[in-house]
Design goal:
This protein is of the alpha/beta class. The protein has ten helices and 13 strands. The longest helix has 22 residues.
């Protein structure tokens, strides 16, 4: 039986990845500081441990796993990443996880290892026009990410590529673009835009006003979690190195995102724009390279994913109100 290790298995993408790997017939070990919040883990073995510690990494990576997925990171939405208040923790925590896990995997003779980087590594100067952002993979340098989160991700990309060159490890790197879906963080300050907007619309009555940070004309693309998992597993098993973008090319303004969620909910929603942390003005996945090298790119529409996500968050909101 093939064996896989998922680091960050208590998080949103990690929990979904564990289920996918189990469905493919893998024996799966998951590890995280916490168990998944919204459903029991499907892992055969789930270790609650701190991957910043070398001893924990060595203990969980105790064999030559067929596949290792390193998704663990200190992260959150704009309200966590862009305030500047969490910069030191974000950089130290995530860098320590990657340094310790890579070395543990090398010593264990791991065959293939995947690292989830982020679109946040792209230079802010290429993302000032909300209608024409440049996020081609080769545009990453000269480097100028818009957050310390992005700088740490860029450092760790280079770390994984260095281990490939110097130690012969089959490492693969992907830059995720705003992954969303059911069972993701939806309240508390670390949620991302789709979940936050779905929550606000679900909590509102028709005719109510919700607050949105900035003027709402900033643009992004958002990728449903199932598509993310397809790209992730394809990349690791392809033998390609990357970095590759894994994201949707369906760019939308935040105002447009609100309108789409309101339509799904069947509500008339007004918007009040307020100051808040924003990140870059425009960002969209450039999928030319992944189409060329993997013969694949995401195809599910934003609305399809939002319909599933809104239904799940609406259920959580109703449960909280009824509690």
């Amino acid at each position: 039986m093939r064996q896989a290790l998922v680091c960050g298995a208590g998080g949103f993408i990690g929990a979904h990845l564990v289920r996918r790997l189990k469905a493919e017939g893998f024996w799966v070990r998951g590890v995280d500081l916490k168990r998944p919040e919204f459903a029991a883990s499907a892992a055969d073995d789930f270790v609650v441990g701190d991957l910043r510690e070398a001893e924990v990494c060595a203990a969980v990576c105790d064999r030559a796993f067929d596949e290792v997925y390193q998704l663990a990171a200190d992260m959150g939405g704009a309200g966590y990443i862009f305030t500047g208040e969490n910069d030191a923790a974000i950089m130290q925590n995530s860098a320590m996880v990657n340094l310790q896990m890579l070395e543990a995997a090398r010593r264990a003779g791991v065959a293939r290892m995947f690292y989830s980087s982020s679109a946040c590594i792209y230079p802010a100067y290429n993302q000032e026009d909300p209608d024409n952002p440049n996020c081609a993979e080769d545009s990453a340098y000269p480097a100028a990410p818009d957050s310390e989160y992005g700088w740490e991700k860029l450092f760790s990309e280079r770390l994984y590529l260095a281990y490939r060159r110097n130690h012969g490890m089959a490492t693969s790197v992907a830059r995720f673009h705003n992954i969303f879906g059911p069972e993701g963080t939806w309240t508390g300050g670390r949620e991302k835009a789709p979940a936050a907007i779905c929550r606000k619309v679900a909590e509102a009555r028709s005719g109510d006003t919700i607050e949105i940070w900035g003027d709402g004309r900033q643009t992004r693309s958002f990728l449903y979690v199932d598509e993310c998992l397809e790209g992730t597993t394809r990349l690791l098993r392809s033998g390609e190195t990357g970095p590759f973008n894994i994201g949707s090319e369906e760019m939308v303004s935040i105002n447009g995102l609100v309108a789409m969620v309101a339509e799904i909910a069947g509500k008339r929603i007004e918007v009040r724009h307020v100051p808040g942390p924003l990140g870059v003005r425009g960002r969209n996945s450039d999928n030319r390279l992944i189409r060329e090298r993997l013969r694949w790119a995401p195809s599910r529409t934003l609305r399809e994913g939002l319909e599933k996500t809104y239904a799940w968050i609406e259920g959580r909101v109703r449960g909280a109100v009824g509690a």
